[in-house]
Amino acid sequence: MTQRSAPVTSVPTPSGYTGKVAIVTGAASGIGAATARALAAAGARVVVADRDADGAGRVAEEVAGTAVTVDVTDAASCAAMVAEAVAAYGRVDLVACNAGLTTDPTPAVDIDEGDFDATFAVNVKGAWLTARAAVPALRAAGGGAIVVTGSVMGERTRPGFAAYAPSKAAANHLARTLAVELAPDGIRVNAVAPVATDTPMLSTFLGSADPEAARERFIASIPLGRLAQPEDVAAAICFLGSDAAAFVTGVVLPVDGGRSI
Fold it and tell me: What is the pLDDT of residues 41-55, one digit of tens each?
């Protein structure tokens, strides 16, 4: 299949991150790791936060940042993460609420209740707790930005994702609500809404006995003719968190190659 959009190999990051401090959750792999790399390349000091301590440590070493082990579903853990960021760097300017969870495609009536609860706990409560913990530090810095990783499935669902899609709809709307509430503090809040991205979670989203065929069918549904790469999403997060987006708040930005049109 001919690709109509060249794969991303590096992230064109906006300027303006020198001297700024960013926390990225879910940063041990995938979109979070790509975001940590992009922010570091743009001059930010990055706190690489993940429940996977080893993975966070590897990415932190790569970007000369600070690794923090965090459980985003636990308020005390989120507060400790922000405290470590302030202790290490003195301030917080950007928080990327990227930690996420999904389940295998399952009919709504068959989803395990524990899986349903866990999906909402990470994707919604986790984003809320992370943002809530960071707000005092962002206020102390004179303002800043929060970017939530939502999903196009929060706007346009698919069968089999009765836990994931509603959780991402809630995450998208959480960003909009926080944008209104925190605007007086000079804190901008936006969300990115990726399509299924070429990360370790992709096979879960495709959910097929023939992954390669499922992959090709999915690519065929994307107008730009290729899969989203973690770097595509990282570039959008970096833009929304930067001074280049100083008058952008409350936006849910699709990063989907046109699939949701």
Answer: 999 999 999 999 999
